[in-house]
Amino acid sequence: MARKPNAAFMKPLTPSPTLAAVIGTKAMPRTEVTKKLWQYIKKNGLQDKKNRRMINADDKLKPVFGGKNQVSMFDMTRLVAAHLK
């Protein structure tokens, strides 16, 4: 029997205006939000060169990251969650 995807993960969430500046304004599931964030991070080379687990914030990401210049991948998920409804 196939595993049913977790409904909470699939529920479309609306990004805050701050987050929308990075991933767009369309409501999307968390999984899609994370995917779009990573596309943005890779496109702009924001992954730290020495420590790949760290994400460097640019002007658009800084407000999403609560004003921090750098956050870990794990903190990023938590900080982004605050920008979703």
Textual characterization of the structure:
With 85 residues, the protein is mostly helical. The protein has a domain at 27-85: MDM2 (Orthogonal Bundle), CATH 1.10.245.10. 45% of the residues lie in helices and 7% in strands. It is built from 5 helices and 2 strands; from the N terminus they run αααβαβα. Strands 1-2 form a two-stranded antiparallel ribbon. The N and C termini lie far apart (32 Å).
Task: Briefly characterize the structure.
The chain is mainly α and 85 residues long.
Helix content: 40-55%
CATH topology of the domain at 27-85: MDM2
Distance between the termini: 32 Å
CATH homology superfamily of the domain at 27-85? SWIB/MDM2 domain
Question: How do the helices and strands follow one another from N- to C-terminus?
Answer: HHHEHEH
In CATH, the architecture of the domain at 27-85 is: Orthogonal Bundle
The beta-strand count equals: 2
Structural class: mainly alpha
> Which oligomerization state do the chains in this entry correspond to?
single chain
